[in-house]
Amino acid sequence: PYTPLIPTFAPRPPPGGLLADGVSSLLAALFTTSPNTTYSQNSGVIAITRCASRASGLATALWLVLLGRAC
């Protein structure tokens, strides 16, 4: 018998960033605050520098906090 080739797609969980954005927006709605958004500019920086180290991200965050407190 003829069986047509129908592609099947297995459900995959959403990427971590999208999932975190959805959860944080849900929590913001539960606490009646405005939802936040995330941006993915880091993807371009990682592509240019080829550095995706979590330690470098935390060091950068520390510098931004320190510089923000100084101003």
Topology:
Blueprint: H1 16-30, H2 42-49, H3 54-70
Helix content: 55-70%
**Strand proportion:** under 5%
Distance between the termini: 75 Å
Indicate the radius of gyration in whole angstroms.
Answer: 20 Å
Low-confidence stretches: none
Count of individual helical segments: 3
Report the strand count.
Answer: 0
Mean pLDDT: 80
Assign the structural class, choosing from mainly alpha, mainly beta, alpha/beta, alpha+beta, or little secondary structure: mainly alpha
What does the main sheet amount to? none
The shape, in one word, is flat
Task: Spell the H/E element sequence.
Answer: HHH
Which structural traits does this protein have?
flat, 71 residues
Descriptive overview:
The mean pLDDT is 80. It is built from three helices and no strands. With 71 residues, the protein is mainly α.
Give me a quick take on this structure.
This protein is mainly α and 71 residues long. 56% of the residues lie in helices and 0% in strands.
